[in-house]
Design goal:
Elements: H1 2-14, H2 17-76, H3 80-109, H4 113-121, H5 130-134
Helix pairs in contact: 2-3
């Protein structure tokens, strides 16, 4: 039994750093390959989101521009009812775009209530928009 223990100890003593590296390097390589694949999928997903969001923004601003032009035309034609209706649609689209812009800011800055108050103090945002920003602020 003592001879077996000595034999095991001799075997362990003969294991070199190269032997350890022979196991560690392939394992690290496999892990890095999986990380690279995950990063590629994450990037593709993000690029697709940005592409879709950009087209949606284009569509919404186009609708708002059309409603504003319709409103101006109705005002020029002295058609008060049509002008009021178009102004309401324009204001609704402007509110939608405003809220989306705040959500986009939140995605970029990950702000808190303290940050919003600091932005107001520095005149980066208007005081009357504080509640709109706080809807998306981290608690």
């Amino acid at each position: 039994m003592r001879e077996n223990m000595l034999e095991i100890l001799n075997t362990l003593q003969r294991i070199t750093i190269d032997d350890y590296l022979g196991y560690i390097i392939p394992a690290v390589t496999i892990i890095l390959v999986f990380i690279a694949i995950w990063q590629a999928f994450s990037r593709r997903k993000l690029e697709n989101f940005i592409r879709l969001d950009t087209m949606e923004l284009y569509r919404d601003t186009g609708i708002m521009l059309g409603a504003a032009q319709e409103c101006l035309g109705a005002i020029q034609d002295n058609n008060r009812q049509s002008a009021t209706s178009a102004a309401g649609r324009t204001e609704g689209m402007a509110q939608t775009l405003f809220q989306r812009s705040i959500k986009n800011i939140q995605h970029q800055f990950s702000y808190s209530t303290k940050t919003v108050d600091s932005w107001i103090k520095k005149k980066k945002i208007d005081d009357h928009h504080r509640d709109d920003f706080l809807k998306y602020a981290k608690k």
